[in-house]
Amino acid sequence: MSLSDTFIRRPVLSTVCSILILLAGMISLPLLPIENLPNIAPPTIQVNANLPGADALTVESAVTGPLEQQINGTPGMDYITSFSTSEGASQINVFFKANTDPDIDQVNVLNRVNTASAQLPSSVNSQGVTVQQTASSYLKVYNITSTEGQFDRNYLNGLYQLNLAYPLTRSPGVGQVTVFGSSNPAYRLWVDPQKLARFNLSVQAVTDALSSQNQIVVGGSIGGPPSTAKNQTTYPILVEGNLKSVEEFENLILAGGPGGQGSDKGPDGSLIRLGDVGRAEYAFQNFNQAAINAKTGYPCVGFGVIQLPGSNAIDTAKQVDVVLKNFEKTLPPGVVLEKVFDQTDFINASIWGALDALRDAVVLVLLIIFLFLQDWKATMVPALALPIALLGALIFVKIFGFSINELTLLGIILATGLVVDDAIVVVEAVSARIEAGERPFLAASNAMKELTGAILATALVLLAVFVPVTFFPGATGVIYRQFALTIVFAIVVSTFNAISGKPLQSALLLGGGKTEPKGIAWTLIGAAFGAGYGYLFGGWPWCIGFGLLGGVVGTFLQPIFRGFNRLFDSFANTYSRLLAQVIRLRRIVVAVLLAGVVLAGLAFTAIPTGFVPTEDQGYGLGIIQLPPQASLDATMEVAAQARKIVAAEEDVVSGEMIGGLGFNGGALNQGVFFFGLKPIEERNSPDQSAGAIIKRMNKSFAAIPGAKVLAAPPAAVPGFSAQGGLSFQFNDLSNGGYSPTDLYNMAWQLVKKAMASGNFFNLYTQYLSDAPVWRLIPDRDRMASLNIDFSKAMQVLGVFNGGAFVNQTYENGQYRQVYVQAEGSERDVVQDLDNLYVPNSSGELIPLANVVKVKLDSAPPIISHYNLYRTVLIQGVENLGKSSGQAIEALQSAFSKISFTNIGFAWSALSRSEVAAGSLAALVFALGIIVVYLVLSAQYGSYIDPMIILMTVPLAMLGALMFLVLMHQVNNVYAQVGLVTLIGLAAKNGILIVDLANQRMQTGLSAPEAVKGAAESRLRPILMTASAALSGFFPLVVAHGAGAMSQRSVGSVIFGGLLVATVTSLFVVPAFYVLMKNLESDWFPASKQTEPVLPEPVQP
Fold it and tell me: Could you give the CA distance from residue 768 to residue 864 in angstroms, rounded to a whole number?
């Protein structure tokens, strides 16, 4: 009695099981979220602080250092990076291990930041230190611009801040919004140092007056409790303590009123106000950025939406789109909101691309099955297995918290070629027994007694292959897990259905005999099938063509089947003759097999490696870098030149150029840019691909004098970094033994050495060590003799030249900072320092030049850290024809050849995951083979039979790797998952042959007779299942459009490997079977005849 007998005898139970699976799957499908990839990037917590006016060295020591030292060692932390800039900004990114909870990580970092706050300058604490979850790539980038350049950035920024900023940041799923080319509105008080001096006032008069006269005042109430009178009314007192307009700030009293200093009255006896010594302006918190539209060159204000880690990209994008549509309704004439890029466009396109591949796979699988079975009723048995297995898999996808993404869809597509195998084997066996004269239900029962063991064995093999890889850590583990478990889910459901439903369906559908496909009905059925596929393929225009083709095929089905049968019979006869020769020459076959094993090992180590394929995501980005002394105006001039090159590309539809911003910290001599492309379906030529466009841009950018401008694709996996390519941290381990210039020179030495290898299209660093600076040296003795307080003197310097955040006001309930700074015309050249005065203890103003010396020097504009060490971030993109794995190896090799002292290196961003995954590839494959071998050993009670079954695996791997090379792919994570899948696929054919050969040997046949008969008997099922699987995998091999590179990577491996495995298993398994069985009988002559002797029980 087999497991299937219960379901064969109880048809209602069998059908109920299938219906329940279908219903649960259909319920699960709309409940599953949709995204491009699962959360592969590790949780990242970002800490931001500002020390206005400070240089990079000061920010490093006063802000970044104390914060880093406290944050370092946070539980679950993987590594930490930071940037300290000459614009007074400190940014720390804490990267955690993939298995940590981002919310807990944020709390842990926040607690440590709070501990460090006492060590920070007061001006840093007064502005606040932010701690937030973040990602390194943008979900959407837009810009607000004008149709004819009639509006400036200040006006455009006002529209954004008033009507969009708050609704956008509170939109569900939005983690952070970065504004490009602008900043938050603020009140700026511009003062003239010389006018202040004429009134005998210092800058402290302005800051003191501001602190005194611009503040929140609580007035209480009239008649409020407790009260001696029995008041019937209460009147709150509203005090206008804050200044709320440019006019009110310009009327700020500096002398003669609260907080006044120096003379009580002006020369004419009036009060001295801010307007007498400067002006007020409603502008920006800082002026370190500017932006222009890449297509028009008009001023713009851009913004990038960063998705909240753990949220769903599609859902977040829908919420943001609602906000943006409402914002567009508020825009005045002449102002437009322009999309630069939206990652969900690529996500949706890649999902549809995968669904197209799934559609083609299902159709091809059904056609192949119909060609072999030549009976629509028999074809229905495996056809029904597809929706049950695929929808059933979605039940578990939902239970395990997965989503519909590129990985799970690839798993579903691969499962399409796998889940029909058992149904094909069942229907073939039942059909053969019915044709031999058995009654349908008896035929189903007898067939399952023979097949149940093989079905369970093949299922266990596939499960054994995938289960170990699900326990791998990090980003690689996430990819393996979602990919592998989706296939496992489908296999589990398919195996259950093969045992519970397929025998009954075979008995019911095949009981009436085989139907001959003839007559006009088959012409109509073929036409309808073709027209339906044509509609799904390309809409109504394709219906006619495919409908006609289907009608022709339907009309000539009988001749097609007869021709196929003659061809198959001829092949079967040829195979039988060849098999007899192969069995006789089995020692030669085994020698060839061993040579294949060696070649497979060599190929595995020789083929270039990578992490994940770089897809055409429909947009690109780039960097701009000028010499360190360049101003923002100079940077924008270069941006304007680069803009024309970007706009000249016909496939570029939008973009923006931003000066003063960098992907790794910002400086006035740096810039970034983004550009969006036409949809990928409108770019059919290879010259229209994102890679080709970027290559042409870089060739033109090279002609821009005095600047480095580079375009690059986005990161292959969102969340790791904004740019694609390598990220190499060149770390100073000397604890201050190297100056920034020393570190810079050594880093460039490494860059030149690595570039000489020919593996890089470009390799660069944006690190600069020698930006010109004016070094101010205070004469402390002189200050003391003149009764000048050092801190007040430095305050004068910092406020006038760097600007000082003093306090805040509120505009319509919205927070606005207030800054004081000298007019731009009073700090253009170093000689303007002569116009600054500092007060002594007697209130006299002393020229600053009397107590300081100034000399020209150099310092880095940005200082980067990796794990608290100073570092130089080296980035690059591999050359055409080279893989990222080859580039990584070349850079590491160049580093080892130079033999630096007290210099280390580390990989960051996506490169870190790739390096970690590199050592896992061989381990994953080896583990898969070992676990499968052990499972098969337990199944067969033998260590010999699993060796026979698995002998085709190395040859399958060799075929897979050869096909990978032919398709110009590399051995990346997707290919490695394909190789693991191949272990189970290659073993399935061997299981079918070995299982039946063992049964025949038990009837007294010799090993050659048993295996030859088994191979001949299993030839048709093996070729049918393999052809069905290959047809299911073929759409992945020829994939195009969004997500095609990932589909080709896994499809090439499995298609090529299974093709070789199918051919070799038909010959290698029988030959090796005979050899091993003969050796087994020679070495263990009694192993099959005697049972193990158990010891007698011991009597008490």
Answer: 11
Instruction: Quick: pLDDT tens for 941-957.
Output: 888 888 888 888 888 88
**Is the pLDDT at 269 greater than 60, yes or no?**
no
What's the half-sphere exposure (Cβ side, CA atoms, 13 Å) at 39? 21
Q: Indicate if the pLDDT at residue 936 is higher than 80.
A: yes
Question: What distance in Å separates the CA atoms of residue 693 and residue 621, rounded to the nearest whole number?
Answer: 11
Q: How far apart, in Å, are the Cα atoms of 640 and each of 629, 633, 648, 659?
A: 19, 11, 13, 10
* Domain definitions of the chain by residue range: 1-31+374-515, 186-221+235-284+789-849, 586-606+920-1084
Q: Is the model more confident about 993 or about 335? A: 335
CA distance 809 to 243: 7
What is the per-residue pLDDT across 239-268, written as a single tens digit (0 to 9) for each?
A: 888 998 999 999 999 987 444 444 445 555
What integer pLDDT is reported at residue 258 of this predicted model?
44
Rounded-to-integer distance, Cα 976 and Cα 477, Å: 12
Distance between CA 708 and CA 638 in Å, rounded?
Answer: 9
Name the superfamily (CATH) of residues 586-606+920-1084. Multidrug efflux transporter AcrB transmembrane domain (1.20.1640.10)
CATH topology of domain 1-31+374-515: Multidrug efflux transporter AcrB transmembrane fold (1.20.1640)
Q: Which of 629, 666, 765, 860 is nearest to 181 (CA)?
A: 666
Strand partners, 814: 811
CA-to-CA dists, residue 950 to 681, 932, 947, 1014, angstroms: 43, 9, 5, 17
- Strand runs labelled E in 685-813: 708-712, 726-732, 760-764, 771-778, 804-811
CA distance 834 to 832: 5
| Most confident by average pLDDT, 450-454, 618-622, 1018-1022 | 618-622
Nearest Cα neighbor of 7 from 506, 500, 502, 511 is: 500
| 79-95 b/e (C-beta count within 10 Å ≥ 16 → b) | bbbbbbbbbbbbbbbbb
Q: Please give the radius of gyration of the chain, using alpha carbons only, rounded to the nearest integer.
A: 37
Q: What angle do CA 897, 902, 907 make, to 5 degrees?
A: 70
First to last CA, the chain: 40
Cα–Cα–Cα angle for 109, 111, 112, nearest 5°?
65
d(CA 342, CA 347): 9
CATH number of 186-221+235-284+789-849: 3.30.2090.10
Average pLDDT over residues 82-101: 90
DSSP for 337-387 reads EEEEEEHHHHHHHHHHHHHHHHHHHHHHHHHHHHHHH--HHHHHHHHHHHH
What local confidence, expressed as pLDDT, does residue 548 receive? 77
Amino acid at residue number 315: D
Which of the 8 DSSP states describes residue 403? Answer: -
DSSP state for residue 659 in the 8-state scheme: E
Total residues belonging to the chain: 1100
Q: pLDDT tens across 404-425, in order?
A: 888 888 888 888 877 777 787 7
Closest-CA residue to 397 (of 387, 384, 383, 407): 407
Label the pairing between strands 44-50 and 77-85. Answer: unpaired
Report the alpha-carbon distance of residue 574 to residue 567 in Å, rounded: 11
Contact (Cβ atoms closer than 8 angstroms) between residue 89 and residue 118: no
DSSP character at residue 237: P
Do the domains spanning 1-31+374-515 and 586-606+920-1084 agree at the CATH topology level? yes
pLDDT of residue 731: 94
pLDDT digits (tens, 9 = 90+) for 442-469: 888 878 887 777 788 778 877 888 777 7
pLDDT band at 164 (very low <50, low <70, confident <90, very high): very high
The three state secondary structure string of 863-928 is EEEECCEEEEEEEEEECCCCCHHHHHHHHHHHHHHHCCCCEEEEECHHHHHHHHHHCCHHHHHHHH
Cβ 747 vs Cβ 895: under 8 Å: no
